[in-house]
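Deviations from the work plan: none for this task. Representative record:
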Amino acid sequence: MIISVVSPHARTGKTTFSTLLAQCLGLTQNLSVLLLSACGSTAMSDYVGIEYEEDITAQAGQVVELVQEEVIAPKDIPDYCKKLSTNCEYLDTSTESFAKDDMYDLVSKIAEKSDRDMVVVECDDKPIKGTDITFVVLNEDRESIKMCKRFVKEKPDPNTLFVVQRYDKSIVALREIAKELGIPYRYCGKLSLSKVLERECRKKKLDTVMPYIIEKEVTVLELNIDFKECMQFIMSTLGQKAKWNG
Amino acid sequence: MIISVVGDTDKRPVLYTILAMSTLLGDVWFVTNDRHFKRLLGEDIEEGNFNNILVSVADTTEDEVYSDLGHMKEDFDFIVFDNLAPSDADLVIFVQGEKISEDEQFLLDSIDKYETILLGFGKGCVPYTTKMFKQVEHTEACQCLCNIDAKLTAVVAKLLTDFVKVPESTLRKAVP
């Protein structure tokens, strides 16, 4: 199953959300997860503390070509990945050498060939080919909401969840955002504003936060319920019940 | 989870503490028949949002609350009823003031199991403090949930901990 995380504009928090979502799936649902970025940016690598090196032998293009030529079997893709947490691996696709469309093609091919249960892909403004579930990441501001309206279909898409990143409940109710977007409330999720997330991103240790979220650590307690909802959304699409402690 | 808070005394400190705690743990609907709570909504409306909590101010009964207000139980993680005690409530909290009135006693007799919070009076009560009511005023005036009173937060955390499967200490610390 391929999960795309998209947003119509930059700096909404796609990278943070994708990384945590992938880790959460691996840690709580016992699914093997491959995390990819189709944005080409180094943000994801930065957040998890991977130094960027333009090494074409370890980059997406090379891996895809080798996979296509069947030199690398899909099961060997993890050899090129960094393990972020239990069941979750990250393939560094950050590069300055690829055009956006080429990068989308490459990442789509990796996702398609992967033998992992789930592939979580951070995208720009459109999902990659073969996407099963789309998460549209937005912020609370009106501009962001307005831009995200283009993802709203006439009939609510049960495979699309709108996630309000850096959500601050004292500013606006989630119901109001759903109303403004013109979607049923159940298709609107959130990722609460968290100083811990911001701090860990800066410290390049974003991959260390999820266990605390799952364990309901007091400073990230609200994020626990946020990810519980995301897991319920994904697993219900699979026709399964999400595993969640409490 | 359905939490029902009953009692004739001023229950605002208890209700705001429950709301502050539950809003950290899920989607909350607060139903009350007390017009005073319209202040949380900032305008003279019957239903609106306050800190991402859906607040409904309405005269309704336990049996008709969902049909009257057009919401479903399943849509929420927490429903907090003020002055309503439906039979399917997971937790009924009686907020006791100086003494129990006849009406209160009548209501309590009809409830199988309830927990009592002694507010202001009685041995082991949560005492009234100036800060408590300053915080209540702050909550309403600024429409912002806050920690009303540390002792009250501890009492409510103890009542909720088993239901929400979050340690009592975490709940106590989590309230802003």
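Strands of chain B lie at 2-6, 28-32, 47-50, 53-57, 78-82, 91-96, 115-118.
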